[in-house]
């Protein structure tokens, strides 16, 4: 779904930009699967206030840190341990693609329709005539995958390089078994605060995307990771703040900040 000078700064801020830029209000896809009506959801009882499944353990995926590089006709492609493309450089390519869509299709085998969504296009202030950027987020059946997406840099009208992650998701049920209100109540009960103090993670402009897809271990003791449908909520008290993640199918508390997936 894990560069010097200007590109280093771009890479560091990419995921934050994905979260801030991919709200439904900014043109995101909404097929109705992310916000089912409350009367169509069977909400279980609020689980006991037990420790979240992944709190207190490291959630860094070692395979994402493993990298392999190949060079084909001047195109340098870097993949992680799962084979996902994390970086492509066309700096030594005699005929780089002219558009991000051409690059996604030709070098990644990705179809942008319903998968990758353009949410930002900008020019470099110090080089507006030759250097431009585009940022894409990933959605699956309309649900945002906040840790995935690509940041593409263009020079002189051609793709120069690209970094990010496209998370492969197959047959994931995106209809939650509990409502967002029930998930908010679960997090409030865990914290021992009123439900009114729990908001969507990040509030505006991401308020409509509390239902997300995250790549996580399949259980506490597993090294196998898989996409999971979760609710994410934000809590800010007078002296502390945090983020809570709740399984949208089981209602189980998964983790709280600062235990965050890397």
Q: Percentage of helical residues?
A: 10-25%
Distance from first to last alpha carbon: 11 Å
The geometry reads as elongated
| Number of DSSP E strands | 12
Helix/strand order:
HHEEEHEEEEHEEEEE
Structural class: alpha+beta
- Given as residue ranges, the uncertain stretches (5+ residues, pLDDT < 50) are 1-20, 23-43, 202-207
Spatial ordering of strands, largest sheet: 1-2-3-7-6-5-4
The largest sheet, given as strand count, sense and whether it forms a barrel, is: 7 strands, antiparallel
Mean pLDDT: 76
Strand content: 25-35%
> Total helix count?
4
Q: Which value, in Å, is the CA radius of gyration?
A: 19 Å
Keywords:
262 residues; alpha+beta; seven-stranded antiparallel beta sheet; five-stranded antiparallel beta sheet; 16% helix
Written overview of the protein:
The protein is an alpha+beta fold and 262 residues long. Helix content is 16%, strand content 33%. It contains four helices and twelve strands; from the N terminus they run ααβββαββββαβββββ. The strands form two sheets. A seven-stranded antiparallel beta sheet has the order 1-2-3-7-6-5-4, with helices on both faces. β2 and β3 form a beta hairpin. Residues 1-20, 23-43 and 202-207 have low confidence and may be disordered.
């Amino acid at each position: 779904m894990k560069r010097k000078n200007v590109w280093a700064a771009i890479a560091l801020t990419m995921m934050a930009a994905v979260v801030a830029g991919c709200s439904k209000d900014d043109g995101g896809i909404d097929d109705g699967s992310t916000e089912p009506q409350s009367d169509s959801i069977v909400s279980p009882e609020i689980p006991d206030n037990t420790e979240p499944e992944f709190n207190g353990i490291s959630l860094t995926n070692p395979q994402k840190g493993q990298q392999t590089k190949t060079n084909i006709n001047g195109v340098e492609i870097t993949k992680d341990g799962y084979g996902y493309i994390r970086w492509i450089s066309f700096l030594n390519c005699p005929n780089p693609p002219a558009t991000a869509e051409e690059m996604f299709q030709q070098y990644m085998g990705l179809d942008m329709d319903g998968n990758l969504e353009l949410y930002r296009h900008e020019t470099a202030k110090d080089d507006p005539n030759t250097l431009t950027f585009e940022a894409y987020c990933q959605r699956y059946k309309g649900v945002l995958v906040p840790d995935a997406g690509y940041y593409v840099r263009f020079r002189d009208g051609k793709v120069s390089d690209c970094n990010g992650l496209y998370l492969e998701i197959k047959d994931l049920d995106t209809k939650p078994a509990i409502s967002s209100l029930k998930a908010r109540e679960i997090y409030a009960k865990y914290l021992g605060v009123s439900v009114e103090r729990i908001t969507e993670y990040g509030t505006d402009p991401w308020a409509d995307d509390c239902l997300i897809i995250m790549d996580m271990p399949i259980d506490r003791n597993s090294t196998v990771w898989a996409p999971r449908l979760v609710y994410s909520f934000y809590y800010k008290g007078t002296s502390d703040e945090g983020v809570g993640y709740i399984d949208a199918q089981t209602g189980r508390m998964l983790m709280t900040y600062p235990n965050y997936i890397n």
